[in-house]
Amino acid sequence: MTSDSPLAQPLPDDLSISKNWKADLLSGFLVSLIALPLCLGIAGASGFPPIAGVMTAVIGGLICSFISDSQMTIKGPAAGLIVIVMGAVTELAPGDAVQGYHLALGIGVVAAVIQILFGIFRAGVLADIFPSAAVHGLLASIGIIIAAKQIHTVLGVKPEAKEPLELLAEIPHSISHMNPAIAIIGLSSLAILFLLPLIKNRFVKMLPAPLLVVLVAVPLGMYYELTREHIVQFGSDSFTVGPNFLVQLPGKLIDAIQFPDFSGVMTGVGIKYIIMFSLVGTLESLLSAKAVDKLDKHNRRTNMNRDLLALGVANLGSAFVGGLPMISEIVRSSANVNNGGKTKMANFYHGLFLLGFVALLPALVQRIPNAALGAMLVYTGCRLASPLTFWKTWKVGPEQLIIFVSTIIGVLMIDLLVGIAIGVVVKVIIHLFMGAPIVSLFKASIEVTQNGDVESLVIPKQSAVFSSWIALKRAIDTNPSAKTVAIDFSQTRLVDHTVMEKLHELEQEFKREGRHLVLRGLEEHRPLSGHPLAARRRTAGSMNTGPDSTKK
């Protein structure tokens, strides 16, 4: 189990920082090549100066590496926060992007303090509060919004619409009015991102797709002479191209430092975005850190509370000098694992290399076309909202798809906070329809009996659902020395998908520790689909404790 101790656990000698610095240095360099264009693109799409994205990753690498005990995660700006940050910039100062940027920095400072408090008060379980389908729906809706915004950048068109559904509706107009020179760069970049994963050649796979995009897009930008404003002829039509289609960096690196404006903090809009910065950022970071832990070949586990503390401190530093909010970023962290990173120093080195790029090679960075960065974000958005995600959710259970789609609709039509709230409310309504007592959704009833270090028996009553998971987890952790923890569901009417999913994850943790997690009493529950982690509803008239039901 993940320790809550504030002290870092010592690494085995063969995984020490001193013995793996070469592997971490190489991985940090390779990850920085992927991170550079993504950081620039995420910042620009968020309404921040592009350099702010790089600053964020630099601060994340230099600070989090010494506070967090997470060994494989790479900290930096993430596409999943674009919608929130851009929303803050535009709503805090309508029509004034510069003022909105500084006001958003003030929001970021307050949200970072909240994240620090989350870490101090051990709120690492925050990711376990929300139902899985609603969280996935939130991420999918963010993906749709990102793709809807950035496809216009790929085509070299500035859209008139601001809202997600309107941006989607404006895509045909942008296609018919695209700037051909910019669209060639953007669509070529998209083709590389979508087609490269289909190529099986191992030598081709060694080249990261974002890096290949830059290697193709920069020469195309030079061919169309984007460094100077001029007219390009395509057939009988004329189109203007110029430096505004390229990444813009400040003349001096010191000029990138900007300071927050706190005048919007106590407004209604400010409070809304403080909640979203701290809540969604924390949720995404915890989910990403847990996912990366599963990729770690050495089965090391992150202390989520310590990681939240590190994240909050880094976000505080980032917001104070003009940077974006950051999280544990899954794409770059996965690349770190695949590139042979061994310790958290890979995150540190990745930050150093990024600092070197913008400090020593600014002219090269400013050759990157915005259309290429937009293509990377469209690709990221399409992955978040992939049709496969809808299909996988349906396979888990029809009720999960209802929650998933309800969340997406709520986000697209209203906003992120309301969308996730709608997903939670729909989940509660479905539970009540399936027979879960309303009291059990808000107050868990759990009985625990101990048999020394041999077995701990946990008996949840009435229901075991997302809202009672934290209480159930605490009951499971009551006796950490027990070799076997048995959970008897014979007295529950409903065990939802969120609980089944988290028990499956917990079962893997127990196996790594040489312990056993045993599920009993599920044989009288009917799964709502053929998926092994589907919700279980108890058949009428059955309340008996059955034999061991470890097969899920």
Poorly predicted runs: 1-9, 544-552
- Please identify the oligomeric state: single chain
Which whole number gives the mean pLDDT? 91
Largest sheet: 7 strands, mixed
Helix content: 55-70%
Helix and strand arrangement:
Layout: H1 21-45, H2 50-67, E1 74-76, H3 82-92, H4 97-120, H5 132-154, H6 164-169, H7 171-176, H8 180-195, H9 202-205, H10 209-223, E2 230-234, E3 237-241, H11 268-295, H12 304-320, E4 327-329, H13 330-338, H14 345-360, H15 362-365, H16 370-384, H17 387-396, H18 398-413, H19 416-433, E5 445-451, E6 455-464, H20 469-476, E7 484-488, E8 492-495, H21 497-512, E9 516-520, E10 525-527, E11 536-538
Parallel strand pairs: 6-7, 6-8, 7-9
Antiparallel strand pairs: 1-4, 2-3, 5-6, 8-11, 10-11
Helix pairs in contact: 1-2, 1-10, 1-13, 1-14, 1-16, 2-12, 2-14, 3-4, 3-11, 4-11, 4-12, 5-16, 5-18, 5-19, 8-10, 8-16, 11-13, 17-18, 18-19
Can you walk me through this structure?
- This protein is α/β, with parallel strands linked by helices.
- Strands 5, 6, 7, 8, 9, 10 and 11 form a 7-stranded mixed sheet that branches. A two-stranded antiparallel sheet has the order 1-4.
- The protein has 21 helices and 11 strands.
- Strand 5 and strand 6 form a beta hairpin.
Features of this protein?
21 helices, disordered C terminus, 552 residues, disordered N terminus, 10% strand, two-stranded antiparallel ribbon, alpha/beta
Short account of what is shown:
With 552 residues, the chain is an alpha/beta fold. It has helices spanning 21-45, 50-67, 82-92, 97-120, 132-154, 164-169, 171-176, 180-195, 202-205, 209-223, 268-295, 304-320, 330-338, 345-360, 362-365, 370-384, 387-396, 398-413, 416-433, 469-476, 497-512, and strands at residues 74-76, 230-234, 237-241, 327-329, 445-451, 455-464, 484-488, 492-495, 516-520, 525-527, 536-538.
